[in-house]
Specification:
With 177 residues, the chain is α+β, with helices and mostly antiparallel strands. The chain contains 5 helices and 10 strands, in the order αββαββββαββαββα. Helix 1 crosses helix 4. The longest helix has 21 residues. It starts with a helix and ends with a helix. Bound molecules: zinc ion (2 copies).
Length: 177
């Protein structure tokens, strides 16, 4: 379940949309987004042919764009896609993450953004994985779901096979393997 834990790590970054500046957490709520802020925001992306609004200002290592709000000398950095959602659609309900329907993290097109719960977001990430860690495809026939997680039938079969082989060896050759 490597994918699952990796997904959680990403989510933890996104759950809290404040950005760390110089090692200090920024304050919990952002300054008001006024006309000037909106005007400045609209100069910081370009629309590509697929309709994504690609952020052209600062982008964090995790791929998300950031946008400063506040007085120039003491502005705080916020995730640009979340700011875009608030400008164009409205406040993000408490505790919800913003999922990129287009999968382009630097995109700030509000039509490509959707607030989701942590659980929904994890499910969507999982759905993007088409093969098990050993490379078997997650077809309907090769997949079973247990406690909300997908498992590979081929891997389970191989695991049982190995267990049977071990028992066989133990019976035939004692513990000398
Ligand atoms: Zn997009
Ligand atoms: Zn497999």
């Amino acid at each position: 379940m490597v994918e699952h834990s990796r997904g959680l790590a990403l989510n933890q970054v996104e759950v809290d949309w404040r950005v760390t500046v110089n090692g200090t957490r920024t304050r919990p709520s952002h300054p008001p987004i006024d006309e000037r802020v909106i005007a400045r925001f609209s100069t910081k992306y370009r629309v590509d042919e697929s309709g994504c609004w690609l952020w052209s200002a600062a982008i964090k290592e995790n791929g998300y764009g950031t946008f400063g709000i506040g007085p120039a000398v003491a502005s705080f950095q916020y995730y640009a896609h979340r700011v875009s959602y608030e400008i164009n659609i409205g406040p993000i309900p408490d505790g919800l993450q913003i999922d990129h329907l287009c999968r382009v993290r630097s995109c700030v097109n509000p039509a490509h953004l959707e607030p989701v719960t942590n659980a929904e977001n994890n499910q969507r990430r999982t759905a993007l994985i088409t093969h098990c860690p050993r490379g078997h495809e997650y077809t309907d026939a090769n997949t079973y779901v247990w406690r909300g997680a997908r498992f590979c039938r081929e891997c389970s079969r191989l695991k049982e096979q190995r267990a049977r082989d071990r028992v066989g060896h133990a019976t035939l050759a004692g513990a000398s393997v």
